[in-house]
Amino acid sequence: MVNVEKFIEKAVGEIRNAAGNEKVVMALSGGVDSSVCAALATRAIGDRLVPIYVDTGLMRKGETDRIRTLFDGNLLVVDAADEFFAALEGVTDPEAKRKAIGERFIRVFEREAKRTGATMLLQGTIYPDRIESEGGIKSHHNVGGMPLNIDFKGVIEPIADLYKDEVREVAGGLGLPVEIQHRMPFPGPGLAVRVLGEVTREKVAIVREANAIVEECLVEKFRPWQCFAALVGLGTGVKGDVRLHGWIVAVRAVQSRDGMTADPLLLPYETLSRMATRITAEIPGVARVVYDVTPKPPATIEYE
Amino acid sequence: MLPLYVVNNHGQFNHLILRALRDMDVEATMISNETPPAEVARGCRGIILGGGPTLDRIGAAPAYLDLGLPVLGICLGLHIMATARGGAVRRGASGGFGAVEVDVLDRDGILQGYPERMQVWASHADEVSVVPEGFVRLAESAICGVESMASPDERLYGVQWHPEVSHTVNGRLLLENFNRICSE
């Protein structure tokens, strides 16, 4: 495990040296990686760091407001929901969805970063991203710089030698709120990967409510590594004597150290039952709730 | 002291091997499986062949078995060892995904200190069907006859499961045993 005090001191020094007198821009998602980077860089160069938060319209319930409260000051919040939903129209293939979102994100960030006049880019790349990209397992867009049409003088990656659980230790050492330190991983493409098939505003609204209910029922009591809800398809239900061709919501809750392997939580039946009741009662379009009991491998944690 | 080399065979857990070694304070470097064997022989005191999706992308990895250095093959690394030494690999009747109960047949050497039965995590469709000459089986399970094998004289060891993932119970012990063998 990383020595937190030493790491912070060294990272702050390195950021200060790398940045010189330049202005530095970064994409802040509010996840633990980018939050730790923002906190380190703020210690190093103060308000010469400009964090940009892109609201893709695919965020969790209340997330954007919460990030705004947690990171006041320099944070630049960009509402880009319309652009993202337009880019996703008619796209059903999971990889095509991820690509459409990644591409749109980069273009929005590029546009906003240019406006700030920053000359350096800071990124929250962590160690497994680097190894996986070098090894050709999968390419991470943030390794070696996002493909931006901006000629930055340099890219700073302060946590590139750390694993996720070590980043959480550093978050504690930096005095970040517990909420951020233990924030569940949230995928880059947001709720889009929790809607199978085409992504629309209506479906995202439903899955957002379902995610909020699952988190309310599970996070504090069971401390899962990750938990969420996904819209997996349509099925027949009957609500108030009326037939409903409604959504099937899959609930997933797993334990893991690093996301590489995972085991479903053995939840009490009454908890499962309460989630099913709440999700079907509070969200009109949902007809059915199922619990996913597959480990990783063979399944992945997210659905797409 | 020279580092251990972790050979990247394009498996998603390969970097976790590095992490496990780092947590043990053992110096280790990940190398491409295209690295020339002579360079590997000069640079390390032991080799871990990581897992991966296919025997079609193992580069020069089979040649690393002939350098006189200790080798630990994990998952596909085990299959590389089996096929390079005249054994065989086939699609298993049942894949091993997630938790697997393994019976340890030989609790010396690489599996020293483990109980007779233990839970490990695996992710494989293929398995060793013919153990090469000079090798002995070290562990088996209900779904796979060769969960582990070794040629102790040559210090070649293979396991079908993944000691580097956190869900394998006490996987670290296996890596500690291998590190000890590499230090002898």
TrEMBL record, chain A:
Pfam families: GMP_synt_C (PF00958), NAD_synthase (PF02540). Its EC number is 6.3.5.2. ATP binds at S29, G30, G31, V32, D33, S34, S35. Keywords: ATP-binding, GMP biosynthesis, Ligase, Nucleotide-binding, Purine biosynthesis. Residues 2-183 form the GMPS ATP-PPase domain. The keyword ATP-binding applies. Pathway: Purine metabolism; GMP biosynthesis; GMP from XMP (L-Gln route): step 1/1. It catalyses: XMP + L-glutamine + ATP + H2O = GMP + L-glutamate + AMP + diphosphate + 2 H(+). HAMAP family: GMP_synthase_B (MF_00345). Heterodimer composed of a glutamine amidotransferase subunit (A) and a GMP-binding subunit (B). This is GMP synthase [glutamine-hydrolyzing] subunit B. It comes from Methanoculleus caldifontis. The gene is guaA.
TrEMBL record, chain B:
CDD domains: GATase1_GMP_Synthase. Heterodimer composed of a glutamine amidotransferase subunit (A) and a GMP-binding subunit (B). NCBIfam families: guaA_Nterm, PRK00758.1. It is an enzyme of class 6 (ligase). It catalyses: XMP + L-glutamine + ATP + H2O = GMP + L-glutamate + AMP + diphosphate + 2 H(+). The keyword ATP-binding applies. This is GMP synthase [glutamine-hydrolyzing] subunit A. Pathway: Purine metabolism; GMP biosynthesis; GMP from XMP (L-Gln route): step 1/1. The active site is at C75 (nucleophile), H162, E164. The keyword Nucleotide-binding applies. Catalyzes the synthesis of GMP from XMP. Keywords: ATP-binding, Glutamine amidotransferase, GMP biosynthesis, Ligase, Nucleotide-binding, Purine biosynthesis. PANTHER family: GMP SYNTHASE [GLUTAMINE-HYDROLYZING] (PTHR11922:SF2), GMP SYNTHASE-RELATED (PTHR11922). GO terms for molecular function: GMP synthase (glutamine-hydrolyzing) activity. InterPro entries: Class_I_gatase-like (IPR029062), GATASE (IPR017926), GMP_synth_GATase (IPR004739), GMP_synthase_A (IPR023686). The gene is guaAA. Residues 6-178 form the Glutamine amidotransferase domain. The lineage of its organism: Archaea, Methanobacteriati, Methanobacteriota, Stenosarchaea group, Methanomicrobia. Its EC number is 6.3.5.2.
